[in-house]
Write a structure and sequence with these properties.
11 helices; globular; about 200 residues; mainly alpha
């Protein structure tokens, strides 16, 4: 496994995206344990995209305009749903600190769906992983599984760090009057923005 892959993967993982926003928002409002559940869900959501890339299904997704549009629309609607529910204080990201009441399983499930319903992720893996595969080094499938596993481990570790920092910050910041309202609006705006960007995405 090359240093180039590790550095490139780290840059991709650290870059802010829907998973980062979700994990940070969860940690900020519900604490460190909840943010770990969010990080785990987001990481688990990578599995379908990785397997699709390895099995060649990502190429089918890329070639099929109808399938791509169907998954993209589902992803856009889900992100807009998260934005709306966050504003209403009744969605998976209820910024009120009630992680236990809502359940860590629900937090993880939301994080997983965020990635599963993003068709660009499968296409990304289809273009990303093969660059670091050496056909002369053995089974291509085994190499891609290994690279994907490392990418997932890196994602989980980085997201846990994001969540821990957000949880620490949330213990102090959310106690200030009016801050919770702006956090809720910012998170909702971020999801709506990601939804719009996905809506405009081309294959």
């Amino acid at each position: 496994m090359s240093i180039e892959f590790l550095l490139t993967a780290l840059v991709v993982v650290v870059a802010p995206g829907t998973g980062v926003v979700y994990t940070v928002a969860t940690g900020l409002a519900c604490g460190r344990a909840a943010s770990i559940a969010a990080a785990f869900g987001c990481t688990l959501g990578i599995v379908p995209a990785m397997l699709a890339s390895i099995l060649g299904l990502a190429a089918v997704l890329h070639a099929s305009a109808l399938l791509f549009q169907a998954i993209k629309i589902a992803g856009v609607l889900y992100l807009l749903y998260l934005a709306w529910q966050t504003l209403r204080e009744s969605g998976p990201i209820a910024l009120d600190g009630r992680a236990e009441a809502r359940g860590y399983l629900r937090i993880a499930r939301t994080g997983m769906l965020i990635n599963v319903l993003n068709p660009k992720l499968s296409i990304f893996f289809m273009a990303f992983l093969p660059q670091f595969v050496d056909p002369a080094a053995g089974s291509v499938t085994a190499q891609m599984l290994g690279l994907g596993a490392v990418f997932m481990a890196m994602t989980f570790a980085v997201f846990v760090l994001y969540g821990a920092f957000a949880a620490l910050l949330g213990e102090r910041v959310l106690r200030r009057p009016g801050v919770l309202v702006w956090v809720r609006r910012s998170v909702a705006a971020a999801f709506a923005g990601f939804g719009l960007r996905l809506a405009l995405a081309e294959r």
